């Protein structure tokens, strides 16, 4: 990726976790990343890289004053959506029935961020780029390839995100993916949305990242050897072969070997 992401496009992911070093060890071994805790000025935030390009952030769960949270928040991957103006988007979020979890704030000269929840409760970040655009490499082994929202009300989610960001939603035309909804920016699919009812009972609305891998089965086996768990064993579906995994601290993510799709003439 060269240059900023178009507004509405997923541009970054980060993991907040109790044991940062353990998470770094797990993901770096699994995907071939490089990463280490950052400087105290950034709260130790680790920017993981692949081929020298940023791919994901991993941070230790802590309160603003640096103390350990009690209770500890769940380990989750947060998707960030690009925006031209975090402040304007946050204002539209509250007008559209969403909630502001963390108000707009500058991250040095890197950019400006906020964290919101949509009306169903799915949490997602907003990123207004400064000197940092987001993921510098995507759609390759070990890098982000897709971001997906699971929600109990597809029409309501479509209305919310379309009202706060320049995205449109369309039913997928992929054979075998009937009912799946794509988020599109300028006519290009940038993310997806599925009905929460297809997941096990009790799973809350959420955004989840997909990582591209050369072999889903090999990555699944490696994750298990490293103490991870399998939430949905490797299976074939319309977009390719995928599995849903969780790291040893409970952070859920998907891996996929994407099927090649014919491009329109």
**β-strand number:** 15
The overall average pLDDT, rounded, is 93
Task: Quote the beta fraction.
Answer: 35-45%
Strand order in space, largest sheet: 9-10-11-8-12-15-14-13
Globally, the shape reads: globular
State the distance separating the first and last CA atoms. Answer: 24 Å
Give a quick account of the main beta sheet: strands, pairing sense, barrel closure: 8 strands, mixed
Count of individual helical segments: 4
Low-confidence stretches: none
Encode the helix/strand succession as letters.
EHEEEHEEEEHEEEEHEEE
Helix content: 10-25%
Structural class: alpha+beta
Give me the Rg, rounded.
Answer: 18 Å
Can you put this structure into words, describing what you see?
There is one protein chain. With 265 residues, the chain is α+β, with helices and mostly antiparallel strands. 16% of the residues lie in helices and 40% in strands. It contains four helices and 15 strands. An eight-stranded mixed β-sheet has the order 9-10-11-8-12-15-14-13, with helices on one face. It has a seven-stranded mixed β-sheet with strand order 2-3-1-4-7-6-5, with helices on one face. The protein is globular and about 45 Å long. The protein starts with 9 loop residues before the first strand and ends in a 7-residue tail after the last strand.
């Amino acid at each position: 990726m060269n240059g900023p992401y178009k507004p509405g496009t997923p541009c970054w992911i980060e993991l907040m976790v109790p044991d940062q070093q353990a998470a770094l060890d797990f993901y770096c071994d699994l995907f071939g990343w490089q990463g280490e805790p950052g400087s105290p000025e950034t709260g130790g935030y680790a920017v993981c890289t692949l081929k020298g390009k940023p791919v994901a952030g991993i941070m230790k769960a802590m309160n603003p004053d640096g103390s350990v949270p009690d209770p500890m928040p769940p380990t989750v991957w947060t998707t960030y959506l690009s925006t031209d103006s975090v402040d304007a988007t946050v204002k539209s979020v509250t007008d559209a029935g969403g909630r502001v979890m963390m108000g707009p704030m500058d991250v040095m000269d890197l950019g400006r961020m906020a964290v919101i929840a949509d009306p169903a409760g799915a949490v997602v970040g907003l990123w207004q780029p400064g000197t940092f655009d987001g993921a510098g490499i995507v759609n390759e082994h070990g890098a982000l390839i897709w971001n997906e929202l699971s929600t109990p009300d597809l029409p309501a989610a479509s209305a919310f995100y379309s009202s706060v960001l320049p995205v449109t939603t369309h039913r997928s035309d992929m054979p075998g993916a009937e009912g799946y909804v794509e988020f599109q920016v300028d006519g290009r699919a940038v993310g997806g949305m599925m009905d929460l009812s297809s997941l096990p009972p009790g799973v809350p609305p959420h955004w989840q990242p997909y990582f591209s891998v050369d072999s889903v089965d090999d990555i699944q086996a490696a994750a298990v050897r490293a103490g991870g768990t399998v939430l949905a064993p490797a299976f074939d579906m319309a977009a390719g072969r995928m599995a849903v995994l969780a790291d040893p601290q409970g952070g859920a993510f998907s891996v996929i070997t994407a099927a090649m799709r014919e491009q329109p003439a």
